[in-house]
Design brief:
Layout (H helix, E strand, L loop, with lengths): L11 H5 L4 H22 L3 H24 L5 H28 L4 H23 L8 E3 L3 H17 L8 H15 L4 E3 L12 H16 L1 H33 L5
Antiparallel strand pairs: 1-2
Length: about 260
């Protein structure tokens, strides 16, 4: 995800550089997928709308890596990526879930969609202002692409089972608020940035990757949705585990004289 990989926007080296075509092509593709998702939702094609959000995630995950590999990072690319993320992972999921399930709920429906959209904007703004001080191993708050995947995955899975949005509007309402509020939480979510792709890995790791691709190919909707649900809950689990460890450490500490 490029907004998580660019150097600080104030870096003078980035400001001196111009606009590079290759990484911005991927960013434009992500933006197009987000816009396409909105259009398909307006036309009642909710499965296509959900899949488009996942495609936007793939494109967004490639642009930053391409920029780093080709040394074509730029301040323009960082700004463009953030704006693209806001459309693809902020506005698009909020509008798609609203049209699919929340529009018959009146104020509760559009307020939930707006809360998600606003939290996505706040999440991106907070990230961009904490690039220099944040722990690279973790994201503070759920990343916006993962939050969008929760909404898109729910729609995709329900579509496969023939369940319409209004039938589970309260579930959709809860998932929308959960995804939005978790984005602006202080819970830590593993970023994967400490993984070095150039290092050798055990053979078992290759088998796990192959198994992952097989599982996704068997049922993309359910596997992807389940994966992002687990990821969305991981921050809460980590917080609870840290609290338990802290309490155990306090009990085990010798009493002060």
């Amino acid at each position: 995800m490029q907004h998580n990989t660019h150097k600080p926007l104030l870096d003078p080296k980035l400001r001196r550089r111009g606009i590079y075509l290759l990484p911005n092509l991927f960013t434009t593709a992500a933006l197009f997928a987000g816009f396409y998702s909105i259009v398909q939702a307006m036309n009642g094609r909710y499965e296509a709308a959900a899949v488009a959000i996942f495609i936007a995630m793939v494109m967004d995950g490639l642009d930053g890596r391409v920029a780093r590999m080709t040394r074509t990072q730029s301040a323009f690319g960082a700004e463009y990526d953030s704006l693209s993320d806001m459309v693809s992972f902020g506005v698009a999921p909020a509008l798609v879930i609203y049209v699919w399930a929340l529009k018959d709920m009146g104020k509760l429906g559009w307020i939930a969609a707006f809360v998600y959209c606003a939290c996505a904007a706040l999440r991106l703004a907070r990230f961009n202002t904490q690039l220099e001080v944040a722990d690279k191993r973790f994201f503070q708050g759920l990343p916006s692409p993962a939050a969008a995947a929760l909404i898109a995955g729910l729609i995709w899975v329900m579509h496969d089972y023939g369940i319409k949005g209004p039938d589970i509007r309260w579930l959709a309402w809860g998932v929308t608020l959960f995804a939005g509020l978790t984005m602006v939480s202080n819970f830590n979510f593993y970023s994967g940035k400490d993984i070095n792709l150039r290092r050798s890995v055990p053979f078992a790791m290759v088998l796990l990757i192959v198994l992952g691709f097989i599982l996704i190919s068997l049922d993309p909707a359910q596997v992807l949705f389940a994966a992002f649900v687990l990821y969305g809950l991981s921050g809460y689990v980590d917080w609870a585990w840290q609290r338990i460890r802290h309490r155990r450490a306090r009990k085990a500490a010798p009493p002060e004289a």
